[in-house]
Amino acid sequence: MKIFPTITTTNFKWKEKIREADELGIIELAVFPTVLNKIQREELYDFLKHSKIKSIPFVHLRSDMGLDEIEFFIKKYNTQIFNVHSEKSYPIPKEWAKYSNIIAIENTHACYLDEKEIKKFGGICIDFAHLENDRITDLNKYYRNSELMSRLPIRCNHISAIKNKFKIEEDGDKLRYDSHVFENLSEFDYLKKYSYNYFSDYCALELENRIGEQLKVKDYILKLLQGRDEYVKKFFNE
Question: pLDDT band at residue 154, thresholds of 50, 70 and 90?
Fold first, then answer.
């Protein structure tokens, strides 16, 4: 399992993140051009080309991205896996079929995972914070999605914060606990609940926090999961 700091774009501070990555000597990370239109993405790609970043194993696709953009990441940054939201939310271009085996469908707030759709692509991208939010607020959706996650390939993961017993924002009539901004490392303790089988080789920190703060989260999660595994081994040995 590898955990990657991520250039996220939802607060439009991605230029600062790329500069910070260069300052910290980070040459490998994930990139999520989630809210950027075509012109903005071209600017992002230009910034990446002039950065010290050499490898981008994991990219979050948008439904308006062309095949040329997917191949840009594969050829220049050796991208191994992509994720996208369900076509129930946004149309998925037919031309993407060329790379369907390395595209995973993410569990989102908008809809349930669909087995037929997942099998058309490379598997599931588990967003742990979305899943935990469902566990708190919508058990029916949580159990239905979890059943698919238990038997279909898990190809990649998003990791965000869960606010501890605190309703952070309203999503229509629903209250949400998941957040792309963390304030306390304990907001990742919920990950201890989840089977190691849910974690993949490509875990991206979907956080708006600075890269330096994301690195602290990475270290915390690795120790958290290691500590959990050691506890389980001790329990069964006794």
Answer: very high
At residue 23, what are phi and psi to the nearest 5 degrees?
A: -65, -35
> The whole model's pTM is what?
0.93
User: What's the residue count for the chain?
Assistant: 238
Dist. CA 32–CA 138, nearest whole Å: 27
Q: What angle do CA 126, 12, 24 make, to 5 degrees?
A: 80
Of 37, 34, 86, 89, nearest in space to 58 by CA: 34
Residues 221 and 3 sit within 8 Å (Cβ to Cβ): yes
Q: What domain range includes position 186?
A: 3-237
In the chain, how many domains are there? 1
CB atoms within 10 A of CB 103: 24
If we measure between CA atoms, which residue out of 140, 89, 148 comes closest to residue 114? 148
pLDDT tens digits, one per residue of 33-61: 999 999 999 999 999 999 999 999 999 99
pLDDT at 221 over 70: yes
Taking the alpha carbons of 39, 126, 109, 163 in that order, is the dihedral positive or negative? negative
CATH value at residue 166: 3.20.20
Round to whole Å and give the CA distance between 131 and 108. Answer: 8
- Give the tokens for residue 77: 């940054």
Q: Evaluate whether 226 touches 233 at the Cβ level (below 8 Å).
A: no
Neighbours of 216 (CB within 10 A): 13
CB proximity list for 200: less than 8 A, separation 6 or greater: 1, 126, 154, 155, 156, 157
- N-term to C-term CA, the chain: 28
